[in-house]
């Protein structure tokens, strides 16, 4: 069986009233738009139309951004920080449709995913606003041991003087919000280096934050040649923290060149959904499909491997292929489209090639497997060997490779057999089995009867092994990262 995935007809040549006018913008150094001859063109991955242009920064702009951040400005009280974040939250609600259209146009994500992403970014701003009001100190009484005396030690958190935040393309708004909102909540100035593939959303979000009252020294947004902007900033001793989300290769490079400073690395994954023999089949099918195809499969925590008990494999496959057909792919601006493009044609070509290689090694395509430009069909593929590239490495797209296991020991070993350790989803109604997976999987997160990507924006999030250094993000943890703890003690 090798069926065609549903591809909505290409309507790109027709006039599409869902499209915004071309956005001509630039990087910002502390609230000022830069002027530059050097511009980046941003094109739709779907139909290659021009979505916008960005005037790019150079090394002198990077220096100006550092100086402006370190010179600083009015110190923000907790209430100021709350008010800015809360105002930004309200503005994002008002501008939701504009943001969704920009996200979809520059990334190729389906408009329904882009609207969902604005909701997530709203929550990030809301949680950061709430957290900014909370006290962050602790008190330690010292007369609690024979060595103690009548003193108290107090802790307080001070903002770092400058953060460099580097973000990927796959959630053009939410990734940026997850860096900047916690930094604002604690009062740490940021230089943002967003993905060159999705710069327009990041720049619009910067403007929204200025409109919400963020003092300009608190945020600059820079794009330009890596050797003039990103790498020198990573190395600069005045940058006290580099917070990076992106690929393993770039994350490892950053860890070697950053030198003596805090580094947060949130890297790639190849998360499994593990379906046990007792699983509720409809739940398993629904979650496997949502995990594999949402956001065009371009979530760090997307389901990249479906591991299923061998006794229920055939029953699962039949229902899963039927379910997968409902994930229609096509024009991202069409509200009926469920799966948009991947980020560019090169990525789709790569995905098609890993599917073809898996087939050469004995795998069978049950649905999809083909691409048109940057549109990669939702692809169900079974009998994938355990060492196939598709499952040993991150396949950042709507691929659903199915592998079977014989028992729980086998499932745990198979799950732990790759270099990654981001998240996982376990589908079971057996509490004892669930607890074994929670204890034995070498990952940052285990979600029972949920997709690996399930989280709320304030809960701790992040991976281990090649997926990260085990330092968590999520609004509350990220706020801690952007501060250092000072202690002081007094006689009491
Ligand atoms: P990427 O290629 O690593 O790029 C990420 C960012 O790093 C971009 O802004 C990029 O800039 C910049 N960059 C590239 N080379 C650099 C260097 N030498 N020094 C400093 N910065 C540099 O990642 P991507 O393809 O955009 O994103 C997809 C990856 O992100 C996937 O692996 C995904 O799993 C991962 N991800 C992880 C998480 C998580 O929380 N664990 C979340 C989302 C995504 P340019 O655009 O200018 O190249």
Q: What fold name goes in the CATH topology slot of the largest domain?
A: Aldehyde Dehydrogenase, Chain A, domain 1
Bound molecules: NADP nicotinamide-adenine-dinucleotide phosphate
**Average pLDDT figure:** 96
The CATH architecture of the largest domain can be given as 3-Layer(aba) Sandwich
Shape: globular
CATH domain class name of the largest domain? Alpha Beta
Helical content class: 25-40%
Q: Biggest sheet, open or closed, and with what strands and sense?
A: 7 strands, mixed
Q: Could you state the CATH homologous superfamily of the largest domain?
A: Aldehyde Dehydrogenase, Chain A, domain 1
Number of separate domains: 2
User: Kindly, what is the distance between the CA atoms of the first and last residues, rounded to a whole number of angstroms?
Assistant: 77 Å
Overall SS class: alpha/beta
User: Radius of gyration in whole Å, from Cα?
Assistant: 23 Å
Strand content: 15-25%
**Unreliable stretches, pLDDT < 50, 5 or more residues?**
8-14
The total count of strands amounts to 24
The number of helical runs is: 15
Largest sheet: spatial strand order: 15-18-19-14-13-21-22
Question: Layout of SSEs?
Answer:
Elements: E1 23-26, E2 28-29, E3 32-33, E4 39-43, E5 50-55, H1 59-71, H2 78-94, H3 96-107, H4 111-132, E6 139-141, E7 151-159, E8 163-166, H5 174-186, E9 190-193, H6 199-211, E10 219-221, H7 230-235, E11 241-245, H8 248-257, E12 262-266, E13 271-275, H9 281-293, E14 303-309, H10 313-324, H11 345-360, E15 364-367, E16 371-372, E17 375-376, E18 379-382, H12 389-392, E19 399-405, H13 408-415, E20 420-421, E21 425-427, H14 431-440, E22 447-448, E23 464-465, H15 475-481, E24 483-491
Parallel strand pairs: 1-5, 8-9, 8-11, 9-10, 11-12, 13-14, 13-21, 14-19, 18-19, 21-22
Antiparallel strand pairs: 2-3, 4-5, 6-7, 7-24, 15-18, 16-17, 20-23
The structure holds NADP nicotinamide-adenine-dinucleotide phosphate.
């Amino acid at each position: 069986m090798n069926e065609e995935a549903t591809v909505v007809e290409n309507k790109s040549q027709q006039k599409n009233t869902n499209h915004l006018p071309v956005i001509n913008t630039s990087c910002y150094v502390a609230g000022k738009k830069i002027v530059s001859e050097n511009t980046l063109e941003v094109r739709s991955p779907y139909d290659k139309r021009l979505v916008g242009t960005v005037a790019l920064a150079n090394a002198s702009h990077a220096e100006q951004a550092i100086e402006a951040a370190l010179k600083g400005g009015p110190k923000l009280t907790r209430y100021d920080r709350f008010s800015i974040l809360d105002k930004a939250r309200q503005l994002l609600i008002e501008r939701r449709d504009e943001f969704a259209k920009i996200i979809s146009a520059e990334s190729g994500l389906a408009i329904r995913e882009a609207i969902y992403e604005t909701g997530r970014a709203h929550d990030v701003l809301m949680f950061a606003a709430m957290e900014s009001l909370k006290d962050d100190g602790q008190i330690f009484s010292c007369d609690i041991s024979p060595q103690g005396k009548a003193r108290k030690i107090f802790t307080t958190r001070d903002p770092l003087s400058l953060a460099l935040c580097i973000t990927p393309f796959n959630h053009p708004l939410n990734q940026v919000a997850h860096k900047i909102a916690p930094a604002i909540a604690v009062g740490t100035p940021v230089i943002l280096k967003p993905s060159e593939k999705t710069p327009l959303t990041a720049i619009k979000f910067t403007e929204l934050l200025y409109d919400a009252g963020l003092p300009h020294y608190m945020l600059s947004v820079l794009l330009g040649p890596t050797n003039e902007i990103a790498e020198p900033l990573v190395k600069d001793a005045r940058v006290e923290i580099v917070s990076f989300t992106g690929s393993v290769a770039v994350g490892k490079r950053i860890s070697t060149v950053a030198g003596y400073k805090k580094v947060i690395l949130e890297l790639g994954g190849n998360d499994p959904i593990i379906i046990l023999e007792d699983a509720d089949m409809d739940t398993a099918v629904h979650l496997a499909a949502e995990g594999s195809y949402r956001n065009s499969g371009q979530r760090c925590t997307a389901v990249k491997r479906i591991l299923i008990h061998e006794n229920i494999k055939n029953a699962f496959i039949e229902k899963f292929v039927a379910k997968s057909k409902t994930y229609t792919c096509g024009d991202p601006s069409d509200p009926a489209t469920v799966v948009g493009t991947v980020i560019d044609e090169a990525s789709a070509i790569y995905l098609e090639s890993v599917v073809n290689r898996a087939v050469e090694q004995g795998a069978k395509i049950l649905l999809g497997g083909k691409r048109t430009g940057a549109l990669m069909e939702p692809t169900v593929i079974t009998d994938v060997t355990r060492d196939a590239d598709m499952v040993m490495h991150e396949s950042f797209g709507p691929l659903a490779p199915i592998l079977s296991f014989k028992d729980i020991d086998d499932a745990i070993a198979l799950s732990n057999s790759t270099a990654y350790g981001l998240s996982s989803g376990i589908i079971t109604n057996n509490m004892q089995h669930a607890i074994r997976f929670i204890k034995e999987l070498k990952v940052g997160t285990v979600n029972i009867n949920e997709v690996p990507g399930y989280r709320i924006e304030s809960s701790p999030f992040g991976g281990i092994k090649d997926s990260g250094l085990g330092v968590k993000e999520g609004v509350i943890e990220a706020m801690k990262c952007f501060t250092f703890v000072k202690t002081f003690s007094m006689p009491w």
